[in-house]
Amino acid sequence: MGAGADLLKLLESEAKHGSAQQRVAMTKIREGAKDGHAISEMMRHQKPFFPPLMVVMTRVGETTGKLERTMLALSEHYAQQYTLRQNFLRAIAWPGLQLLIGIGVVSLMIWIMGVLTAPTGGQMTDMLGFGLRGPKGVLIFWSYIAVVVAVFGGIYFAVRKNVGGIQNVVPLVYQIPKIGSAIQTITLARFAWTLSLSLDAGINPIDSTRLSLDATDSSYYRSGAKPAEEAIRGGATLSEALNETHLFPEEFITQIEIAELSGTDAESIDRLARDYDERAKGAMQTIAGVASAVIWMGVSMFLIFMIFRIFGNIMGFYQQGFEPI
């Protein structure tokens, strides 16, 4: 777009790349744009492929004539999010692989104990002490693992969907050493970036605040939209309105206030957003490090437990051998 390329040709080019879902979505947008429809309108019809933030910001960019600038900012934002996610996955990949290898080794031992027979006849001794042998034992072992995975998956789903208002415990999560402050920093970075982009695009403070709270992807922060709106309508500044939500740390509120006093909201908050983007990178590294350490500890404890189980069974045989007849 910045080079003056035709929009329809750009959309046609994008429709030839990516996943099948992306190609279908971009084809629909191109067809709509060719018929005179706004890009944001066509994006809205392709939900949930396009995030709400992208749809709203595209509409604002079209309305204000800043579509090129808005798209550039969005691309930087999503590239940053993608990089953070990839770095996190790379950090936990090796410990996760080791955990899978450990599970595979135990599964193999269970299977072998069921298909082989002892030299004296009968079943082989249960070296693991679980009472699991053969293919059936492997399936039972995997079912135990599936239950554990399901529990963690259920917790993740409950937090994402705010089941039973579980996100109200977010302040307690923030008190967890290292990981709590890291999660808060990443959330504030999302908020600050969206707020900066919204104000720069010409969106009014009320809608900018609501959009930014929604961008945190947290029902805990979304709950602050109404008190913030009421405060702004009552004549409060942006920092005062955010303070009324009782969601943000004092340091963040102070930085917003300084940004308001030092220049235009969009420019000053943009600097704040870039600062928090840098903090978010460090925060993601912290979370990845903690997650990696937890997986390492899980693997170590699992292997140590298995070793002691096997060693205990072997020692039991020796004790039986030394008992008087």
TrEMBL record:
<dbReference type="InterPro" id="IPR003004">
    <property type="entry name" value="GspF/PilC"/>
</dbReference>
<keyword id="KW-0812">Transmembrane</keyword>
<feature type="transmembrane region" description="Helical">
    <location>
        <begin position="139"/>
        <end position="159"/>
    </location>
</feature>
<feature type="domain" description="Type II secretion system protein GspF">
    <location>
        <begin position="194"/>
        <end position="308"/>
    </location>
</feature>
<dbReference type="InterPro" id="IPR042094">
    <property type="entry name" value="T2SS_GspF_sf"/>
</dbReference>
<comment type="similarity">
    <text>Belongs to the GSP F family.</text>
</comment>
<protein>
    <submittedName>
        <fullName>Type II secretion system protein</fullName>
    </submittedName>
</protein>
<feature type="transmembrane region" description="Helical">
    <location>
        <begin position="99"/>
        <end position="119"/>
    </location>
</feature>
<keyword id="KW-0472">Membrane</keyword>
<feature type="domain" description="Type II secretion system protein GspF">
    <location>
        <begin position="2"/>
        <end position="113"/>
    </location>
</feature>
<keyword id="KW-1133">Transmembrane helix</keyword>
<keyword id="KW-1003">Cell membrane</keyword>
<feature type="transmembrane region" description="Helical">
    <location>
        <begin position="287"/>
        <end position="311"/>
    </location>
</feature>
<dbReference type="InterPro" id="IPR018076">
    <property type="entry name" value="T2SS_GspF_dom"/>
</dbReference>
<dbReference type="GO" id="GO:0005886">
    <property type="term" value="C:plasma membrane"/>
</dbReference>
<dbReference type="Pfam" id="PF00482">
    <property type="entry name" value="T2SSF"/>
</dbReference>
